[in-house]
Design goal:
Number of domains: 1
Number of strands: 0
Radius of gyration: 15 Å
Distance between the termini: 43 Å
Shape: globular
Number of helices: 6
Strand content: under 5%
Largest sheet: none
Helix content: over 70%
Order of helices and strands: HHHHHH
Length: about 120
């Protein structure tokens, strides 16, 4: 059984464990949430939120000596790679392509939430 199957069967019961920082599954869930926040920030068109979301995605994993000078594109690429590794390891995705598709869906869900948020607050 894969993590993907467990999530489908028992999301509510596993939710607490999924959010435990320091565990692989907890870290994966936090990364997913940060990708959703990035989609939300992009939909709002808020540069400060976008920068914060990217920083949260990369966080302490950015090493300028190894990774080069930070940029949004480099940061996003590394963030996607990190979540892709988790997805493949835990059976959420079969490979890099399906993992990246799943990450795009997460960001799209964040964008949809932003659109709902803007609708409630009088935004476009």
């Amino acid at each position: 059984m894969t993590l993907k199957h467990l999530r489908a069967l028992a999301e509510d019961d596993l939710g607490f464990y999924f959010r435990q920082e320091g565990t692989d599954i907890g870290n994966m869930t936090i990364r997913e949430q940060n990708h959703a926040k990035l989609g939300f920030a992009k939909a709002l068109g808020d540069p400060a939120r976008i920068e914060k979301a990217i920083f949260n995605l990369v966080g302490d994993d950015w090493d300028e000596e190894m990774d080069g000078k930070y940029s949004d594109a480099k940061g996003l690429e590394k963030a996607v790679e990190m979540l892709t590794e988790y997805y493949i390891r835990y059976g959420v995705a079969e490979g890099p392509i399906s993992a990246k598709q799943a990450i795009r869906r997460i960001e799209k869900q964040g964008a949809e939430q932003a659109k709902q948020f803007m609708g409630r607050t009088g935004g476009d």
